Fold this sequence. Notes:
The chain is an all-alpha fold. The protein has helices at residues 19-54, 59-94, 107-116, 118-127, 129-140. The protein contains five helices and no strands. The longest helix is centred in the N-terminal third of the chain and has 36 residues, at 19-54.
Amino acid sequence: MTRMKLNLWAKPVERRYGAREVAKQTFSVIFSWTYIAVYLNVLVLICTLLYEVLELYGEGLVFVLRVICAVLLWPLALFAMYWTTRTRSYIRQKYCIPARYCGSSNIESLQASTRSCHIEDFCCSFCCICCTVSQMARHTMDYDTYPAACCTNTGIRDSVPDVV
């Protein structure tokens, strides 16, 4: 999403200048949400172990933490599928990549399938979100020419163009 300069709703940012800042904000929101969810899951695990092994905390605390985790994790999972579906659909439309299973072989239908087959994008996101994200990353960057970089907003150095 950051490479394609998409906002938090996976829609392209219209501003030429400032698109990178919006993409950074999107990254920050997603990263923060994920960090909080993982932190709470670890906290639930620790409290569960303490309750079952040492019987230090009451069962109510473990239940409350599990509910909080569920409230955070389910929307995060649903939004992750939404973001992946929208981003994959945007990349397919931008690069005129036809849908493989939604269209037929004639040209008019092939052109329509690059625009409107969100079902295939959703199915890919739902079945294997890791594979879908990896496919999008490989499609938007030539990793043989520009190596990946850790701890950057786009996964590449700042001197490299966002999309190759």
